[in-house]
Design a protein that fits this description.
The complex is a heterotrimer of chains A (252), B (320) and C (509). With 252 residues, chain A is of the alpha/beta class. Chain A has a domain at 5-80 and 154-249: P-loop containing nucleotide triphosphate hydrolases (Rossmann fold), CATH 3.40.50. Chain A contains 9 helices and 9 strands. In chain A, strand 1 and strand 2 (19-31) form a beta hairpin. In chain A, helix 5 crosses helix 6. Chain B is 37% helix and 17% strand. Chain B is built from 13 helices and 10 strands. Chain C is mostly helical. Chain C has 2 domains: 43-249, MetI-like (MetI-like fold), CATH 1.10.3720; 300-509, Orthogonal Bundle (MetI-like fold). Classes of the chains: A alpha/beta (252), B alpha/beta (320), C mainly alpha (509).
Chain lengths: 252, 320, 509
């Protein structure tokens, strides 16, 4: 049963050489159970800070963050969350299947071999089960990271610029695949990205953030029905939404 | 290099921790700390052990080899050994200056084998010849040499003293003019290198002290008197038999006591032969005559070591 | 390369045959080989005994080092508290504590302890570095699934530290061999290459001494090679690990009173460990001196203080000169490695031999060549200090960013100008790291030479007090040499911080 994510009045600041930086200031955001939300904004707008708070890697100075009514750390320990990072962050000494199984080791659960095999098939890596990350291409590594994020059947999925390091063509392919995977699981998903097209293509809702201090500038609903196809990228409606978000990013 | 271990070698290695336990029937454990690595200096004890003289006396002997960092007296203090061989000057100095509870109960060398060794082609025949020369002295023996020099009216700054690192090569190469070493040992090596050696004993020029004095702590003397006499008796028997023919036994120890020492058996035979007149005594091996003790006290007084008669205990020798 | 090696051997043979060096002190390789063959029956038992001492010490030392490294990586407070102990172990001149170990323990123990001490520092620092430098993203993955510090250690950090640790084991293996041999030389055992050496010194046979020295070199080299191979196999890539010279700092922002308490604890801990070990050993007070007993000893009217000051006046100046020459030579060689790599490569085998041959074997040979004056001390000191310093500085010169080198090159600068403008200033942190490495090694070299060659200074004082049963002095010299080493180390660190801060650089490992 997918759970929701809730941030209310969250602030986080860091002390640096140039004085105090307000990475997030009074941010409130509700992600409904089963929704796909994209977070977009210029660098320094606090979107990565927000994600770290939601995952429990960091604590807010003020405000409250909850995942399905629990604190992020509690939710993580219960195995409610799944996460994929920008640079895959695979353990180089583990094979593809062992990397995917890592959350089981952390959560001290038995390895579910059937589930792992299923996910390897889902991300199209059948035949590479025993390969080491160093032997895979960047796109393949990213797909391993996504399989790993899904392996514990999370209720809440966090994706931190998972395709940021890929080229445009590969990225579009991965977008289509991610949508297919998501439609099968319908997990609550928060995607942090700096690609406007990626955000529109994948999300039900795009949250646009602004910097100094980090805050939510606008929330834009995406009306396209699913499954969305690659042709969507070329439509005038898509271009109009892109222009609207770009405008929001520029502060309009 | 392949390491194939046969049984003998393995047994040898089992003693790599310097231990050579001799198991006997219901024998009392007794640990003996030698003052140097295994060479002919300790031939009498090797023979006594091999022939079972210690076992016959009811002793289960543990033989501990020595080395440069091993201070024989220290093993008595820590209780690792019951009896050891020392140089009398350091032992008595430790008694008088640090209150160490030692007693000298016998002397292996009636005459200290330490001497001034030089090459025959540039001989140093008496102390006066040392003036203006370079002499290598083991740092431990500097006091002894200074005593000998003083007894002969030579001051320390009339010659150059450098440390001696157990290696006669500098003498053979002429880098130094003479060295202080066991006259029983080093002339052999010099001969091997194609040179002829000449030497004189410090003992014959005023430094009339024993060497390898047999030392125990007062505690052990009080509590283990019977075992000490037994050790002296068995060791004397071993020494007497060994000295009958000094060439006889060293070759038989090539694979046991002398295994891996890096020294030649011929060297040990030379050593054993040369030490015979220094060990043999009228009162039997280990004897300490009143005259000899008086001479020791007198010689040590010259280097400021206040030896007295009661540092020496001759009563155990009488019980042998 | 092969041709060069053959040429070098041929030259050596010629020099040996004609007895060109010190009337035959450098024997021809053929003479060494013939002697070795004649002695072949002796070697297995000695090599085996050395392997036992070094092997057990290697296991214990590295096990303790990894456990300590994990503790220091996890707890900055523990790292800060143990800093004093760590520096003391790093700076410990083995030659000064070998007699103490022989005094306090028996049998294999001194060998094992010296071998273990030789391994500890390098492996401990590598473990800390490996753990703290583990990929932060991988750690985040573990934490994101609710994994704590232990899960992170178990699944990510220990495993990512493996290449670093293996790299350290490579350096620890020869160190263990040398530690064991030094203890064997003095400790009174019958077997071991060190024991063989002491028996052979009186033979006046340089070929035997060379044989033993080279056997030790091969043993140490094999240890290095085995772990280099394992490292290459496991990590599928080699990690450049140099000899570490910085203990984990454990510095974190905390209140002044806490920092002061930790600093005081760090200074006191080595003394507490010393006192505790003596209490635990139960050794008699005449032999085992506690810190208080040493203070009492120095108060006695026995002129101990005077003798120590005299010895220091002999030892310290020549140590300083030796370090300066060793580092100067290393720096010149490091520059050479950039300008003319070929010359340096040809020189490397000789350099390796001087590092892995036990000093107690090398010193008598050098005495024959250089005599017994101050020059032999300097030669020995230079030979033990220059190599690690060279490796560290050469690495520093090579680490300079390519783009930084390309700028002057683009303006047509010569290699020398590039060195002068970019490489040399950029390698400053490595010069300091080399200096920190050199200090304890220099003391080891000087004291060995003083003991076996010149009969001066602290080395001689140590040897003499051993002969005179002057236990107070034996301990004083040992403690003093450690304190001196630590003091020099701290002075270097102090200067380094200021200089590097001015240059806007950070400390190199």
């Amino acid at each position: 049963m997918p759970v929701g994510l809730s941030l209310s009045g969250v602030s986080r600041h860091f002390d640096g050489r140039g004085g105090r930086v307000a990475a997030l200031s009074g941010v409130s955001l509700e992600v409904a159970p089963g929704a796909f939300t994209a977070l977009i904004g210029p660098s320094g707008c606090g979107k990565s800070t927000l994600l770290r708070l939601a995952v429990g890697l960091d604590l807010p100075d003020a405000g409250r963050v909850s995942v399905g009514g629990l604190s992020p750390a509690e939710a993580a320990r219960k195995g409610l969350t799944g996460i994929a990072f920008q640079d895959a962050a695979l353990l180089p000494w583990r094979s593809v299947e062992d990397n995917i199984a890592l959350p089981f080791d952390v959560l001290r659960r038995p390895h579910d071999a059937a589930r792992i095999a299923e996910l390897i098939a889902l991300v199209g890596l059948t035949g590479f089960e025993k390969a080491l990350p160093g032997e895979l291409s960047g796109g393949m590594r990213q797909r391993v990271a996504i399989a790993r994020a899904l392996v514990n059947d999370p209720e809440m999925l966090f994706l931190d610029e998972p395709f940021g390091a890929l080229d445009q063509i590969l990225r579009r392919q991965m977008n289509v695949e991610l949508q297919r995977i998501w439609m099968e699981s319908r997990t609550t998903t928060l995607l942090v990205t700096h690609g406007i097209d990626e955000a529109i293509f994948l999300a039900d809702r795009v949250v646009v953030m602004a910097a100094r201090p980090g805050r939510i500038a606008r929330v834009i609903d995406i009306p396209f029905p699913r499954p969305r196809r690659a042709e969507l990228f070329g439509t005038p409606e898509f271009a109009a939404l892109e222009a609207e978000i770009a405008g929001a990013l520029d502060g309009h | 290099m392949t390491l194939s271990l046969d049984r003998r070698l393995f047994l040898g290695l089992a003693g790599a921790a310097a231990l050579m336990p001799m198991r006997g029937r219901a024998a009392t454990p007794f640990a003996f700390q030698a003052s140097w690595i295994n060479d002919a200096e300790f031939a009498g004890y090797f023979l006594a052990a091999d022939n079972g003289y210690y076992t016959a006396e009811g002793l289960d002997l543990t033989y501990l080899s020595g080395g440069p960092d091993v201070i024989p007296e220290s093993t008595l203090i820590t209780g690792r050994a019951d009896l050891t061989l020392t140089t009398p000057d350091t032992t008595i100095k430790a008694i008088t200056e640090q209150g160490a509870p030692f007693k000298i109960i016998g002397a292996q060398y009636q005459k200290n084998p330490l001497g001034i060794v030089s090459l025959a082609k540039a001989p140093i025949n008496e102390p006066k010849d040392l003036i203006g020369k370079t002499l290598a002295v083991p740092p431990v023996n500097v006091i002894s040499v200074e005593a000998m020099l003083a007894a002969n009216g030579i001051t320390r700054n009339q010659l150059t003293i450098v440390p001696y690192a157990y290696d006669p090569t500098p003498l053979i190469r002429g880098e130094i003019d003479a060295s202080v070493d066991f006259t029983t040992n080093v002339p052999y090596t010099i001969k091997l290198a194609g040179e002829e050696a000449t030497s004189f004993l410090l003992y014959d020029h005023g430094y009339t002290v024993f060497n390898d004095t047999v030392v125990v702590t007062e505690d052990v003397l009080a509590s283990r008197r019977g075992e000490l006499v037994a050790f002296l008796r068995a060791s004397r028997k071993g020494w007497e038999e060994n000295l009958v023919d000094p060439a006889k036994y060293p070759p038989t120890w090539a694979d046991t006591w002398f295994a891996g020492t890096g020294r030649e058996i011929d060297n040990e035979v030379f050593f054993n032969t040369a030490q015979k007149p220094l060990i043999e005594a009228e009162g039997g091996i280990f004897a300490m005559s009143e005259d000899a003790i008086a001479a020791n006290i007198e010689a040590l007084a010259k280097v400021g070591i206040a030896a007295t008669r009661d540092h020496f205990d001759t009563t155990l020798l009488e019980e042998i | 390369m092969a041709i060069r090696a053959i040429l070098a051997l041929a030259l050596w043979e010629l020099v040996g045959r004609l007895a060109l060096v010190a009337g035959g002190a450098l024997p021809a390789p053929s003479a060494i080989a013939i002697r070795f063959w004649a002695d072949r029956g002796d070697y297995p038992m000695h090599v085996w005994a050395t392997m036992q001492g070094a092997g057990i010490g290697f296991l214990i030392g590295n096990l303790v080092a990894v456990l300590a490294g994990v503790l220091f990586a996890v707890s900055p407070v523990a790292a800060r508290l143990a800093r004093g102990v760590n520096i003391a172990i790093f700076a410990l001149p083995a030659i000064a504590i070998a007699p103490i170990l022989t005094l306090m323990t028996t049998g294999m123990t001194p060998r094992v302890i010296l071998a273990a001490l030789g391994c500890y520092f390098v492996t401990m620092t590598a473990t800390v570095t490996g753990i703290t430098q583990a990929d932060a993203r991988m750690r985040d993955v573990i934490r994101a699934y609710g994994g704590g510090r232990l899960a992170s250690l178990r699944l990510v950090e220990l495993r990512s530290a493996v290449p670093q640790i293996l790299g350290a084991l490579r350096i620890a293996a020869p160190a263990a061999v040398l530690g064991s041999i030094l203890a064997e030389f003095g400790g009174g055992g019958r077997f071991g290459l060190g024991a063989y050496l002491i028996g052979s010194l009186g033979r006046a046979d340089p070929a035997r001494l060379w044989g033993i020295g080279l056997a030790a070199t091969v043993l140490a080299g094999v240890g290095y090679a085995v772990f280099a191979m394992i490292a290459a196999r496991v990590t599928a890539s080699t990690v450049a690990v140099t000899v570490a010279a910085t203990p984990p700092a454990g510095d974190a922002p905390r209140p002044l009173w806490q920092r002061a308490a930790l600093a005081a604890g760090s200074v006191l801990l080595p003394f507490a460990v010393w006192w505790g070990l003596i209490a635990a050993s139960g050794a008699p007070a005449m032999i085992a001196k506690t810190p208080m007993a040493l203070v009492d000893y120095l108060m006695l009217p026995n002129k101990a203080g005077e003798r120590i000051l005299d010895a220091l006046a002999q030892t310290l100046p020549i140590t300083a000169v030796g370090i300066a020459l060793g580092l100067g030579f290393a720096f010149a060689l490091a520059l050479g490695s950039v300008l003319r790599p070929g010359i340096v490569r040809a020189f490397m085998p000789v350099a390796l031999v001087t590092q892995t041959m036990p000093l107690v074997a090398l010193t008598p040979l050098l005495v024959l060549i250089f005599g017994r004056g101050p020059s032999v001390i300097l030669w020995i000191t230079v030979s033990v200090t220059f190599f690690p310093a060279f490796v560290t500085m050469a690495q520093g010169l090579q680490m300079v960013a390519r783009s930084a080198l390309d700028v002057p090159r683009a303006y047509g600068a010569s290699p020398w100008t590039v060195l002068r403008l970019v490489s040399i200033p950029a390698s400053a942190p490595y010069v300091f790291a080399a200096l920190r490495l050199a200090v304890p090694r220099a003391l080891l070299g000087v004291m060995t030479a003083e003991w076996l060659a010149t009969g001066t200074g602290l080395g001689n004082l140590l040897n003499q007090s051993r002969g005179y049963l002057d236990y107070g002095m034996i301990w004083t010299v040992a403690v003093l040499s450690v304190l001196l080493s630590v003091f020099f180390y701290q002075v270097v660190v102090w200067i380094e911080r200021r200089v590097l801060a001015r240059l806007g650089m950070t400390t190199a490992a």
